[in-house]
# Entry
Amino acid sequence: RQVAVITSLSASVQTTYYWSINLTDGYNWTNATYHFTTNVLPVLSGESPTNSSTGISLTPALYVICTDADSDVMTATWRSNSSGAWVDFATNTSIITGTNITQMNSNFSEYNTTYWWSINLTDGYNWTNETYHFTTNALPTLSGESPSGVDYFSCEASDVELYLDETEYDTDSTVYEKQAEYTVPALALDAEYRVSCWAKPYTAPNPVGVKIYKNGVAITEEEIVTSVGWTPLTWDLSPFTATDTIEVWICGLSSPMNSRVKDFKISGNVTYYNASTGISVTPSLHVIC
# Structure
């Protein structure tokens, strides 16, 4: 038996080739013709997110369908540029034709960003590769608030009830004494603050004076409280810087009787809007997202 190997044949995938042999013994001859079909490439389809899609949520599940007309068992290698360079991030093996495969990539985590991903699919004989991309959705925003006004967020502060008793009282009515303080956190951005407290004299009409200080220096005018009941006081103050100390100081202005202050609170301002007036007690609230 002799075997002839043809090395000059340049074959393409999924192609039928015919070949024949003419055999002679010097007296007579015979001829036979044969054909074969080369391997069919595996196919990727039905990708999700759809190629070139926009408005995709962060870290979406990636999905694709793998098909092989020869029913060969396939292997898929997933790649992406989400880290800044193309890298393999997952592999699926022993895939039979018609199987859908899914993978996640936690690096697809930035808003309004285009990400590229690809799959290399092989059936052990030939391979195919498809590359896709999508753009994540924009960072959501809020606008058109109603009613408009000053919006504050809570920040760390003390809720305390403090007493200026007779033994601590300075008979010099022009001298204020510090009763509580709050230090702006080192990590805080420069921001405006709303400072509030409640104050009252021990007996009416002996007044108590209240001022707000920053780092030991008065930054508000004197608020004079004469009502025997608790009176709320509020100040919207100019920006403070991280590590500034906001302080409440009080003074009994005409009597050595107890002057009191309580519930010293601070909140940092998020955004100022034009203040609305005439808002009902139970308004309907809405924003545009």
Remarks:
- The chain has no helices and 22 strands.
- Residues 15 and 285 are 68 Å apart (CA to CA).
